[in-house]
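Q: Structure for this?
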Amino acid sequence: MLELADIHAAYGRVNTLFGVSLTAKPGEITCLLGRNGAGKTTVMRAIMGLLPVSAGTITLDGAPLHGLPPERIAKQRVGYIPQGRRLFAELSVAENIDIGLMTCGEGRDTRDWVLSIFPRLRERLSQRAETLSGGEQQMLATARALCLRPRVLLLDEPTEGLQPSMIDQIRQVVLRMKSEGVAVVLVEQRMEAILSLADLAVFIESGRTIETLRGDALRANPETLTRHLGV
Amino acid sequence: MGRGLVLHLCTIALLAAAFFVLPAYHSGNLARIMVLAIYAMGYNLAFGYTGLLSLGHALFFAAGMYGLSLAMTHLAIPALPALGLALVAAGVVAGITGALALRTRGVAFMIVTLMFAQAGYLTALYFSEWTRGEEGFVIPQAMRNIAGIDLSGETGRYFAALFLFAVVLLLIGALVRAPFGRTLIAIRENEARATMLGYDVQRLKWIALVVSGMISGLAGAAYALLFGYAGASFAAVPYSIFPLLYVLLGGAGTTLGPLIGAVFMFYLIDLSSGLTDAYMLVAGVVLVALTLFLPQGILGTLRKRGLPWLP
């Protein structure tokens, strides 16, 4: 279980998080919600150690993550798919996947598992990553993070700019990770996705957690989304 | 056997055959070019594959050159162990430089590596009692042999250069195909993502710089051994710029780009200097044109436009 307890963080001298708390349980999807600039991506970066946490704690199954360098956090099997995909453009699809597999010593089984989730990538293994379509690139970015066999999966607006068929595929992957016991933290803007996927909704505003709702409560009062997100 | 390996073996065979076909002047040039290409291959590992734009590789070239030549002339150590010492010297210098310079990145990294190289150059001048500064010194011809092979003669020199070139080419070819090389490319493409996947990027960049420095040092040592001369001018700024030019011209991140770039640059200067005293101006104009029209270098462009398998 990933737990953030009242974390504070800053970019240099500029404070950006002023008390964010959330819990992401295995087999649940925790949606991190807020308006643009609320600090959602900053929370993701703080979890990954890309931003120093000045106060509060981040723990994974009770062990502290805060203060660890990003590569050690990744090795705790925390997968992060940031906005913008960011593939290794010059490498092939197979090499992108292999790069993901190597750090945690994963092998053929994990490779087959990942390719069973994204069969389209299997058809494009020798193709250079930069020549994939936008949707395929998102698949590859997701596949690469799954190569860690993550205990926690952080997805920052994974469906942004994708066509509907691709959005559905990414949604299916998120649900599969949930069913396989992964703790998923999802930053999402689309209301229908939030309402259908969230087991827990954490609203943040100006770098603070302002409300936490169970998914059922959110679905019973969808106007909460409108109120907090201004949509 | 992959197409890349076949191409490498064909290149080596072509270079071997060239010795028997080319006039002595050009085979002499080619021996020098192969040594410079080794230097550029070392540089390419840092710049072309890992994305480390160093302006200080002359330091590693000179560390290898002085490592060998000082050991041979002042300590009377034979050529082969002196070559080993040169590799160690270049590796140690690259290790220390990397540990400090890799705390920076981008422009700061360029400047720090340039400063390190300048410090090395000034050190060579300062200890002129041993190095004889800019004037340099000659390695006695009688010492320039390994296992009875005279490396000062035309044939011995050419095939020794070819042997070292072939070893480094095949080594680099294997290295960049291996997981380590693929990881270096991943770092070059997106350092942050490589970190997010659990790679200790700093450590890998340091290893890449040390290996790069050792190959550059090997080139420096080979230059001194085969051409019998060591001097501080090899530690000066131009010798940090040359491998960058070779790699940019031939194609950064391609295994044969450094050789193509070195051949091109060597003969561009050689031919233009025969035509005019303003040969550096001619070379400059041609380089600017090439950079504008082939920004990925000769092999980089070929790889982009129809030969994606080029290693």
